[in-house]
Each structure stands twice: as structure tokens, then as C-alpha cells.
Design brief:
B: about 100 residues, alpha/beta, Hypothetical Protein Ychn, Chain: A, about 30% helix, C: disordered N terminus
């Protein structure tokens, strides 16, 4: 079955991103297709590569990046929500004259239409938030 | 329809609102802090008993274990599922409503 | 609904419901939910919005944010008709619980192209059981 996942909270403060990650991993193990994981609201903060959590803690952002690499996942960060919260890729950083970008490997920045597309294209949409 | 609830019923009204809007035959899965609604002897217990089995109630096992809640401490009629069971519930129901 | 059935592309359209259960300004969810609705309107789906629990506060009249330094986005709800988003369901019980009546809500209307562009109210106050029924009919629910 074709699943779309929506993550509406950032890492660490809420369990949402962890729950979404566990769900996504197990859905893949069970042979489902993950059409896309969309990050919205503070969920865009899952897409920074600049986090440095203590070594004995999970690194949520890395977990997503690694899962994306392993399964060729489409991890999409909402551009409007990302701009508000300072998540930038190279071209966005250039466009807004910022000195650095911070998007994590495996993530891409795109529009809200990508979320609507999940609704249209997927059999199921599962959201995680607060 | 599948409903997921992730808040303690003692902090937020999410679970109450879910029960108010769920229809007979729907499934409700308690995850994260939502699992506390599944425990015996709480102020929610009568509310859940009052549903008379109209809804199928589930609690996510890994979230129970993480919070030190033994399956034996749950109300009768609550089924415990793992993440695989969560995925199956989503697949079995046409729509999932996430109560945030 | 019978009018919808005459739209040729109606067979491929999915029923999208946006669920709003949270008040505006205290958190960003109401604003960012509205942004999804506006973008989603371009996709020609069968869109409805539900306001219940604290979500009814989103469409109260007389919002003035000048003292809190935030943008007042409430006028955008009144523009939804221009985006062909014309079904705004408000739960009666949620209004009652909060001591509100439909008169406390903004006037939100649309021009009905199937009825000589007559101006009609977009807000439909429904009872809880009806709202549950509407939720059960959806293909996709986006809840913020």
C-alpha cells in the first residue's frame, strides 16, 4: 500500500518525529511503499544537518537521512515553514543572501503542493504532531 | 475510520473530543502520552466503559513499556499492538484522523 | 452534492477535510493550516473545512492583533470563497460550550456559480453527529 507521512513537530521537544520514524521504518519492513515524508510546522527542524546531540542519544535528523539513503525516501521540507524557521538549502541561502545553508542529506525543500499531492496520490496519510 | 490520540486525557481534551466524534465501528489507537487513557482505575475508566464496546481500542506497546505501564494495568478490552500493528491498523482503515 | 456530481472531473476528485481544533495566535497551527488550504485550492479537489473545539475561535469577529505584533490573518478566511473553498462546517456544540453563537462569527460568503452567482454563506453550523458523519465521508483528513 502507498503511504504518505506528515511530521508536524521538530525533534526532541515532542515525540512526534520519533513516532513517525518508527512507523515509517516498520511500514517499509512490511513491504509498504512510502511515497513521501512531508515536514511541516516546526517539523521542518528535522531537516537541519547542524545538530550535535550527545553521543549516547539518538540523532533524529541522522536517522531520517540514513533511512532516506537506505530506501531512497523522498523527505520534503515545506519551503514557507522552513524560511520562517531558518532551514535553507544552497539555492535558498544564496537567494536570501545568507552565509550558510543547513539542509540535511536526503531532505529537499519544496512547496505545500507536495503535501496535497500525498493526499491525492497515496492510499493512506498518517500525521504525527503535537 | 482510525483515530490516533497522543495526549494524556488528564492534560488535554483530545481523547474526549475523539470519543465524542468517533462513530460505532471506528478504531482508536492510543500512542505516546495518549496511552495513559488506557489504564485501569482512572477518572477516564467509566467514560471508556460507557462506550459499551462501540469502538475498538488499542494502545501502542512500545509507548506503554517506555512509560512503565504494564499490560496488566490496562482496562479490559484494550488491545496492545506494536508498530507493525499500528501500520496494519492504518492499512485496514480508509482514513486516519490524527487528534493533535 | 447533486450539483457536484455534474462536474465532469468529480470522479477523480478526492474529498479533503481540513480539521481545525485550535485557537489562533497562541500557536501557529491555525495560520499554517490556512496556508495549506490556500495552496490546496489550486488542486481542484472537493474541499471542506471543519471548525470545532477551540478551532471555532479562529473565525470570531473583530480580531485585532495590533497590540501583539502579529499579522491578523482572519480576513483571509473571508477570501476563501474566491478560492472556491465554500464549505466551512462549524460545530454547534463547540460554539455552545464556549458561550458563542453564530452571530459571533465573521460573515464568510461565496458566489455560487451554479446559481447565477448568488452570494451565499460559506459557514454551515452543524450538530456534532452531523460533523462526525461528514468526517466519515472523507478520503483525506488533514488535522492541525
Amino acid at each position: 500500500m502507498k503511504f504518505g507521512i506528515l511530521v508536524n513537530e521538530g525533534p526532541y521537544t515532542h515525540q512526534a518525529s520519533d513516532s513517525a520514524y518508527q512507523f515509517t521504518k516498520v511500514a517499509l519492513e512490511k513491504g509498504h511503499e512510502i511515497y513521501r515524508v512531508f515536514f511541516y510546522n516546526d517539523g521542518v527542524n528535522n531537516g537541519t544537518r547542524l545538530t550535535v546531540p550527545p553521543q549516547d542519544e539518538r540523532n533524529i535528523q541522522n536517522n531520517w537521512s540514513e533511512l532516506a539513503k537506505e530506501h531512497d525516501l523522498d523527505l520534503v521540507v515545506c519551503v514557507a515553514a522552513a524560511q520562517r524557521r531558518g532551514i535553507l538549502d544552497e539555492s535558498e541561502a544564496k537567494r536570501h543572501s545568507k552565509d550558510v545553508d543547513n539542509i540535511a542529506p536526503g531532505f529537499r525543500i519544496s512547496g505545500l503542493g507536495q503535501l496535497i499531492e500525498i493526499g491525492i496520490e497515496c492510499d493512506r496519510l498518517v500525521a504525527f504532531g503535537d | 475510520m482510525l483515530h490516533t490520540v497522543n495526549k494524556s486525557p488528564f492534560e488535554k481534551t483530545t481523547f474526549e473530543s475523539c470519543l465524542n466524534h468517533a462513530r460505532p465501528g471506528d478504531a482508536v489507537l492510543l500512542i505516546e502520552d495518549g496511552i495513559y487513557a488506557a489504564m485501569k482505575g482512572t477518572a477516564m475508566a467509566d467514560r471508556i466503559a460507557g462506550m459499551n464496546g462501540e469502538l475498538s481500542l488499542y494502545a501502542l506497546g512500545p509507548d506503554l513499556a517506555a512509560r512503565g505501564v504494564d499490560e496488566g494495568a490496562l482496562l479490559e478490552g484494550i488491545s496492545v499492538v506494536d508498530y507493525g500493528g499500528f501500520v496494519d491498523l492504518v492499512a485496514e482503515h480508509d482514513v486516519t484522523q490524527t487528534w493533535l | 452534492m447533486s450539483a457536484d456530481a455534474q462536474v465532469p472531473e468529480s470522479d477523480d476528485r478526492k474529498k479533503f477535510l481540513y480539521v481545525n481544533r485550535r485557537a489562533p495566535y497562541g500557536t501557529i497551527y491555525a495560520l499554517e493550516s490556512l496556508e495549506v488550504v490556500l495552496i490546496g485550492a489550486a488542486f481542484d479537489q472537493d474541499v471542506s473545512i471543519a471548525f470545532f473545539d477551540d478551532g471555532v475561535y479562529q473565525i470570531l469577529k473583530n480580531q485585532d492583533t495590533s497590540g501583539i505584533g502579529m499579522k491578523n490573518f482572519s480576513p483571509t478566511y473571508r477570501a476563501l470563497g474566491d478560492y472556491e473553498v465554500t464549505k466551512l462546517y462549524v460545530e454547534k456544540e463547540s460554539l455552545d460550550e464556549r458561550g458563542l453563537s453564530p452571530d459571533d462569527l465573521m460573515e464568510i460568503t461565496y458566489e455560487d456559480e451554479d446559481d447565477d452567482w448568488e452570494e451565499k454563506p460559506s459557514i454551515r453550523v452543524v450538530e456534532r453527529a452531523k460533523l462526525s458523519e461528514i468526517m466519515a465521508e472523507q478520503d483525506v483528513i488533514l488535522s492541525f
